[in-house]
Write a structure and sequence with these properties.
Elements: E1 4-5, H1 19-28, E2 33-39, H2 52-68, E3 74-82, E4 94-98, E5 101-104, E6 107-110, H3 115-125, H4 130-141, H5 144-148, E7 152-153, H6 174-187, E8 194-197, H7 199-202, H8 213-221, E9 226-229, H9 242-246
Parallel strand pairs: 1-2, 2-3, 3-4, 4-7, 8-9
Antiparallel strand pairs: 5-6
Bound molecules: zinc ion (2 copies).
Length: 261
């Protein structure tokens, strides 16, 4: 069984539980390693991200938990760094690089807040064209390793979060496919693993993980690596649905956390 999960959030950012509650839940699930990945400070997103002082307290609390639980579970202090954040990632043991915003005409447009906010952005800044919006998103994603120097590429196609049953756009549309392929063609040579992220499943937005099945196939066909993560915002969703994907992902799936760190 995959007994590590490196993508989790706590009350220090937009999660529901304390770090220690997360550790106890991970122990109860028989896990050997839990990584915290609080949203690093971003001035344009103070609601969801840690403050500068909050991030220092987060690191101190996780350092204390490492000692307290030593020998029982390995605890790692990471960060989920948004593409547009210029905060330092030096104090962290690993970095998940994620794009949550598209920058357009000087505005920061959040792609994963609510369907209404996404639709408004498409209407106001992209003339109602979801494909132009997706192209802007994937162009940003294509640069995420370069910009954030991440160890793991977060939720590659987050732009599809509200598109269950393709209610907003057609994911087989040639422009959509060309946009994600171009991003993968630029990211694959970086050699960083792509998350198979079950966060939108546990929160009821999607019935399958990010990235979509065709993207996963493309990554595997081109020698890319995959890492399961839950993007948990509560203790009960740690390691969510990992068992469903563990076998199916075969050799491409990272099974030893040492391969990432
Ligand atoms: Zn994220
Ligand atoms: Zn996250």
């Amino acid at each position: 069984m995959i007994s590590f999960d490196l993508h989790t959030h706590t009350v220090y950012c937009d999660g529901k539980n304390s770090p220690e509650e997360m550790v106890r839940a991970a122990l109860a699930k028989g896990m050997t390693c839990l990584g915290f990945s609080g949203h690093g400070y971003a001035p344009y997103d103070t609601d969801c991200c840690m403050s500068v002082e909050g991030a220092a307290a987060y690191r101190a609390e996780i350092a204390a938990l490492k000692e307290k639980y030593a020998g029982r579970i390995r605890i790692l202090c990471g960060v989920e760094q948004d593409y547009w954040s210029d905060g330092s990632t030096t104090p962290y043991e690993y970095v998940i690089g994620s794009v949550h915003y598209i920058k357009k005409d000087g505005e920061m447009l959040c792609v994963d807040n609510t369907p209404e906010i996404a639709r408004l952005a498409v209407d106001q800044f992209f003339g109602g064209d979801w494909y132009t919006y997706a192209e802007a998103y994937f162009e940003t994603v294509s640069d995420v390793v370069n910009k954030t120097k991440c160890d793991i590429i977060g939720h590659f196609d987050l732009v599809s979060k509200f598109n269950e049953k393709e209610r907003l756009f057609d994911e087989s549309h040639p422009r959509y496919v060309a946009a994600w392929r171009a991003a993968l063609d630029r990211l694959l040579p970086c050699g960083k693993p792509f998350e198979v992220n079950t966060g939108a499943m546990s929160r009821g937005w999607r019935t399958a993980p990010y990235p979509g099945a065709e993207m996963i196939a493309y990554i595997r066909d081109h020698g890319g690596r995959l890492i399961l993560s839950s993007d948990s915002h509560s203790a009960k969703t740690i390691r969510h649905a990992f068992d469903r994907y563990e076998d199916a992902l075969g050799e491409s799936l990272i099974r030893n956390v040492e391969e990432v760190l």
